[in-house]
Amino acid sequence: MTMTETRQFQSEIPAETAAAFDSARAEAFGERLVDLFNSGALSLMLSIGHRTGLFDTMAGMDAATSEAIAAKAGLDERYVREWLGAMTVGGIVEHDPEGATYRLPAEHAAIMTRSSDENFAIYGQFIGVLGSVEDDIVDCFRNGGGVPYERYRRFHEVMAEDSGQTVLPALEGHILPLVPGLSDRLAQGIRVLDAGCGRGKALNLMARLFPNSRFVGYDLSEEAIAYARNEARESGNANVTFEARDLSDFDRTAEPEAFDLVTTFDAVHDQKEPLALLKGIHRTLKPDGVYLAQDIRGHSHVHLNTDHPLGPLLYTVSCMHCMTVSLAQGGEGLGAMWGEEKALDYLAAAGFAETEVRTLEHDIQNNYYICRP
């Protein structure tokens, strides 16, 4: 918003309000909105760059023309050229106008390619996936209800990539060691359940790491379970099974004292009946068992989340996925930002006598709850 536009807007509001109107604040907010729109647009282009492999292609090239980049990537040059325009003005790709060449700096490629340990381009996909259900969400704002899982065509795919960065690399060396002696027990052989397993990435990895243990994965999505089963077959994991299952009645249907370890990875908050799931987990644990839960780090009170580094993103994901898929089932609609305080209340209500909250340095997004019956 320019100063002229600010003054024009100020002249249109009541005199008593105009007297307290801070023009500098309005102008600063207008500039912030412009930056927000640019960042949102770039997020979509980051997603395209990731999905088409353009970042991976450019990371292996010196400065090159749009024709050369498109040819190496096997893509249409006209689209690549326009994408490069967005990447250039967005400060992600460098451009030499004399040679009409483009280059992805090594420092940018280090956190934007599949060969890197932390590929931030993955997260740009959430904007497009969530945007695809915007009309459905607007309808829910007006009429209530929710958006069912099947409307999110790529959500499990994107979450599997997310898990591939935050969970899988840290599972053996950081997450499982949060529970003293757990890795030794897994090596010796125990029975493990992953509730809300999605595509089963974590469970299939554990099955490969600990062949003496037996693993079971439950998830509501038939598509995700089919993917998990296929990966298990391809990996030769004979010690893992997957089942498509609605866990909203798990408090009544869980097999009593059946598992030594139960895990959930960012799964509780979008369940139809999260407390029923937690009660079922408590019911199905052996007396000396342990429940290890990864869930979104945050507070149950919005004013305590104003300085959260991922706050806007997490509330948006919650509104446009986690909360609404629960409401679509007639559920509670707890949402991703239920927060540590409420999580501890729910765990206590589920019957857990002891809960410890841990964090990992590499993971700014999640808490880890270690719960014992």
Q: How would you describe what is shown here?
A:
This protein has 373 residues and is α/β, with parallel strands linked by helices. The chain has two domains: 3-114, Arc Repressor Mutant, subunit A, CATH 1.10.10; 132-372, 3-Layer(aba) Sandwich (Rossmann fold), CATH 3.40.50. It is built from 18 helices and nine strands. The protein has helices at residues 3-11, 15-18, 23-51, 54-59, 66-73, 77-89, 106-109, 125-131, 134-143, 155-166, 168-175, 182-188, 201-209, 222-235, 250-253, 274-284, 311-328, 339-349, and strands at 94-96, 101-103, 191-195, 214-219, 240-244, 259-265, 285-296, 354-360, 363-372. The strands form two sheets. It has a seven-stranded mixed sheet with strand order 5-4-3-6-7-9-8, sandwiched between helices. A hairpin with a 2-residue loop joins strand 8 and strand 9. The longest helix is centred in the N-terminal third of the chain and has 29 residues, at 23-51. The protein is globular and about 70 Å long. The mean pLDDT is 92. GO terms for molecular function: methyltransferase activity. Keywords: Methyltransferase, Transferase. It comes from Kaustia mangrovi. InterPro entries: Methyltranfer_dom, SAM-binding_MTase, SAM-dependent_MTases_sf, WH-like_DNA-bd_sf, WH_DNA-bd_sf, WHD_Rv2258c. This is Class I SAM-dependent methyltransferase.
